[in-house]
Amino acid sequence: MRAVRLTVTAAATAAALTALSACTAKSDAKGGEAIQVTAADSTCETSTKSVPAGQVTLKIENKGSKATEVEIVLPDGRIISEKENVGPGTKYTLTAEVKAGSYEIACRPGMKGHGVRQKLTVTGGSTARRNPQLDKAVADYRDYVQDQADQTLPLVGTFAKAVKDGDLEAARKAYAPSRLGWERTEPVAESFGDIDPKVDIREDGLEDGQKWTGWHRLEKALWADKKIGSEEKSLAGRLVTDLEDWQKRVGKAEITPTSMANGAKELLDEVATGKVTGEEEAYSHTDLVDFKGNVEGAQRAYQLLEPVARKNDPALTKELDKQFTALNTLLDTYRPDKNAYDFVSYDKVTDEQQKELSDAVNALAEPLSKLAAAVVK
Fold first, then answer.
1. Whole-angstrom distance, CA of residue 321 vs CA of residue 245
2. Residue 95: phi, psi to the nearest 5?
């Protein structure tokens, strides 16, 4: 779940004009040089406004007082690559692949709204040599993402029907399974910036005046309010419609080897910032189901990239194999049937156990942050 962004064209255009006046563009970067991105609470300074097509590296530093999100965005709003939760005073290196065209580098202080943006022009054609193994990895991952979307819709249909029937217990039972496909492919789902705020926004991520819709709005009704009214029945239908839109559009997502690798790391970041803390499923306490979905999605992206990464950095893949195994083994201790997604309610997980889970996530996230660089050596 990401924080919401503005998607209305007029609002976005106005915000962009305001934001661009706060951005500072310096001299153009030469091929191979990193783009320095300095984010603050109201500015987004970049070291260049033009780079050649191919691999690009963003050296991000947050000098503001709020956590920020930095994105490379296409004109239609699709996100090429991103890094969420860059904390105040911290730095991060983001590696991506870009084709010739017009983009924006967006800094989103507080991870809300349209953010502060800098224009970026990518020139020429890519000079990178095609790697058939990476081409196959991208194709196979695209099939995986589409398959997850296709499998999600019937499960969401079951959930929505239970809500529309006013069957509280059936709706509760169908809730967590309906989210698994989304959780496994969340970075790709989120690359369409207008869908996530409709289906996966939490109450604490709402903008002023934004209507709360989606899974978590229904989660609150089912567990906190313990009732299903006419509004919830209507919202269940809207959830199906919005996810049908996702299912139709997901095949058009921009996917590259580096976006796969960065997406795997983003899934671990999702676990660290939402699932381990218990914030994601605050009412249902089904956080461990989401947790497992995020890990499975990250592992699938890694598995497809692993043959190339192993050639370039065998020590890294050895460590990743070890840490994925350790985290999955730990997660299995929280479910009686390792072939099912029936996990312990997260409100039953102790502080000590949460710390153990957090440590295991961090142990995997650190080497996973190096995967993007390993596949494009």
1. 35
2. -105, 135
Mean of the pLDDT values across residues 165-174?
A: 98
Compute how many other C-beta atoms are within 10 angstroms of the C-beta atom of residue 219: 24
Tell me the β-bridge partners of 60.
37, 92
For residues 217 and 210, give the distance between their C-alpha atoms in angstroms, rounded to a whole number: 12
Contacts of 99 (CB under 8 A, 6+ apart): 53, 122, 126
Do 41 and 66 meet the contact criterion of CB atoms below 8 Å apart?
Answer: yes
Does 30 or 233 have the greater pLDDT score?
Answer: 233
In which order are the strands placed within the sheet that holds 68-73? 50-52, 116-123, 101-109, 68-73, 79-86
Q: Is the pLDDT score of 190 beyond 80?
A: yes
Task: Tell me the pTM.
Answer: 0.80
Both structure tokens of 132? 């058939």
Q: Is 79 helix (H, G, I), strand (E, B) or coil?
A: strand
Whether residue 145 sits in one domain with residue 61: no
Which structural domain range is residue 162 located in?
133-375
What is the end-to-end Cα distance of the chain in Å, rounded?
A: 31
Query: How many distinct structural domains can be found in the chain?
Result: 2
CA–CA gap between residue 256 and residue 142 (Å, rounded): 10
Distance CA 259, CA 188 (A): 9
Could you give the CA distance from residue 63 to residue 335 in angstroms, rounded to a whole number? Answer: 42
Rounded to an integer, what distance in angstroms lies between the CA atom of residue 283 and that of residue 222?
A: 8
What are the tokens at 271? 């676990």
Looking at residue 46, which CATH number applies to its domain? 2.60.40.420
> In this structure, is residue 39 part of a structural domain?
yes
Separation of alpha carbons 68 and 5, rounded Å: 13
